Amino acid sequence: MKKINRKEIQIKLNVSHSTVSQWLSGLTRPTAGKMFKLEDEFGIPVSAWRDIKSYLQNNDTKQTPKQSSNRK
């Protein structure tokens, strides 16, 4: 399992470091579109944003990025 990489989230979603920090600390939430991208790219379910702090704590802040389905 891979830890959530804030820098990778920042780059892939084109947001600031402080935005990612606010999301992961539960101060703010990403837009719906960004939530779906976070689910697709980083495996963070949309439902986790109801209480992201608990989700991260219960999942030990480790996520497995989804693998591309374009493998041959």
Short description:
Helix content is 49%, strand content 6%. It has helices spanning 6-13, 17-25, 32-42, 52-58, and strands spanning 2-3, 62-63. It has a two-stranded antiparallel ribbon.
Structure description:
This protein is mainly α and 72 residues long. It has one domain. Helices cover 49% and strands 6% of the residues. It is built from 4 helices and 2 strands. It has helices spanning 6-13, 17-25, 32-42, 52-58, and strands spanning 2-3, 62-63. Strands 1-2 form a two-stranded antiparallel sheet. The longest helix is centred in the middle third of the chain and has 11 residues, at 32-42. It is globular.
Q: In order across it, which strands form the biggest sheet?
A: 1-2
Question: Which spans have pLDDT < 50 for at least 5 consecutive residues?
Answer: 61-69
Tell me the fraction of residues in β-strands, as a range.
Answer: 5-15%
* Rounded Rg: 12 Å
Question: How confident is the prediction overall: mean pLDDT?
Answer: 83
End-to-end Cα distance, whole Å, is 23 Å
Pairing-aware structural class of the strands and helices?
A: mainly alpha
Number of helices: 4
| Major β-sheet annotation | 2 strands, antiparallel
Overall helicity: 40-55%
Number of strands: 2
Tally of domains: 1
Secondary-structure element order, N to C:
EHHHHE
